[in-house]
Amino acid sequence: MRTFRDFWLVYCLVADLLFFCWAGIFGMKFEGSDSSLVYKIFMTLSGSVVIGYTLLQVLRRNVHMGVSAWVLLFFLPLLFAVDYFWETSVKMIDIGKLNPFVLMMVCFSYTGICSGVCIAQRGIGHYARWLDVVMLIITVSLFISILGALAGIVSVGGASYQTLAYLGGFSFCINLCMILWGDNYRRLPLFRSRHWRWLAFVLLAVQLVACLVSGGRGGFVTLAIGSMYMLWRSRHLGKTVILSALCVLAVAAVTSVDDESVLMRTLEKNSVRTFDYIDSDKESFKRKTGREGVYKTALEKFVGTGYMGEGLCQGIVSGYPHNVVLEILMQGGLLYMMVWTMVFLKLFRHIHYLNANDGAWILYPLIFYHFIMLIFSGTYLTAPLFWFVISYAYCRMDILSAAHPDGVA
Q1: What is the DSSP string of 290-335?
Q2: Is a pLDDT exceeding 90 seen at residue 236?
Q3: Rounded to whole angstroms, how far apart are CA atoms 76 and 144?
Q4: Are 366 and 385 a contacting pair, CB within 8 Å?
Q5: Residue 259 backbone dihedrals phi, psi, to 5 degrees
Q6: Residues whose CB falls within 8 Å of the CB of residue 205, separated by 6 or more in sequence, listed in order
Q7: Among 60, 159, 336, 377, which has the minimal tally of Cβ within 10 Å of its Cβ?
Q8: How far apart are CA 68 and CA 243, in angstroms?
Q9: Averaged over 72-96, what is the pLDDT?
Q10: Are the C-beta atoms of residues 354 and 398 closer than 8 Å to each other?
Q11: Partners of 159 in the β-ladder
Q12: Residues with Cβ within 8 Å of residue 356, at least 6 apart in sequence
């Protein structure tokens, strides 16, 4: 029972991604996260299990309830509830547009918070083995998607090419992290075997090719920044050389395919899209990213409210600008940005300590995936791994501080 519980706490953090991975593996195709009823029902049910389990553990006093846990589990939802009733009553916001998003906030973000509180009790090192499983599931779906590119279909289970790119970048970072630091974790027998050590390098090549074939920019940035940072932190020269050689060979193998093949044409076309925003011409950058309109609108709303923001619920109804900094400024203005700045500064200090003293290297892929994605797309209000990292780091530090009254650096 404990094994299933541990797996489910990790699984629900990436359930939105794995839904489309499983669909791709079994040859199914869904419309996407915005329109698929099956997807919404699945996310609601999976999130409800984690939330219910967490609150039950709190009632049974099986969870260390430090200040951070109280704030994240109860105070933040209370603040949002107050803001919700105030904005819907005074500003007369259309709740028909607001309520479906609020439900997604609960299913995604609050689930991430609850998982963070639970996993912090024993430390993420006890759960790292399940990220191996997650990475393998994703990679199988990526391989099938690469085969689908032979038919000119760039997708995974019906999700967009951007999802495929982020899946490639995310799985690459998990795989690389376990190659570098996996010996420090208690992994499942398959992932401890000698054969797996070499297979893991091969899977890196699959993940890289899938990312390039997709043509998604954010996914490749996640892969590039995440791998460079982890290699720098690990200082494993031998593994770095092997990794670099393997990636070069993987790209060379793919490019050796007949120039007239569908796969080659797809790779060439989408790889150009991946990098074509890197241009010194400002107007060219705007044209190729297609974000200048939403960025400008967000800044106008921020300035138009006297730098105070238009409110969280109003910001939700207005739509997110595909950039977390602009989203925060648009919703809460300078004061809200100051609060988040302090949260992030303390968060990075906590993560640095946990990596050095609590074996939390596996946090790297989780951080790079959602934190980088939020610079290019999506909203932090429905980003489960974003909230998980915050919840885990703060709650784990509370637990370590309670265990060491003399102080934690």
Answers
A1: --HHHHHHHHHHHHHTTTS-S-HHHHHHH---S-HHHHHHHHHHHH
A2: no
A3: 41
A4: yes
A5: -60, -25
A6: 246, 247, 249, 250, 253
A7: 60
A8: 39
A9: 88
A10: no
A11: 156
A12: none
H or E stretch covering 369: helix 363-376
Question: Is the Cα torsion angle 383, 388, 391, 393 positive or negative in sign?
Answer: negative
Q: How far apart are CA 79 and CA 88, in angstroms?
A: 14
Tokens of 227: 């791998």
Secondary structure (H, E, C), 245-269: HHHHHHHHHHHCCCCCCHHHHHHHH
Buried b (16+ CB within 10 A) or exposed e, 386-401: bbbbbbbbbbbbbbbe
Query: What span, in angstroms and rounded, lies between the C-alpha atoms of 229 and 232?
Result: 5
pLDDT per position as a tens digit, 263-294: 555 555 555 555 555 554 555 445 455 577 78
Record the pTM.
Answer: 0.89
- Residue found under tokens 């085969």: 147
pLDDT tens profile 181-194: 998 899 999 999 98
| Sequence-ordered list of residues with C-beta below 8 angstroms from that of 312, at least 6 positions apart, any chain | 80, 83, 87, 331, 332
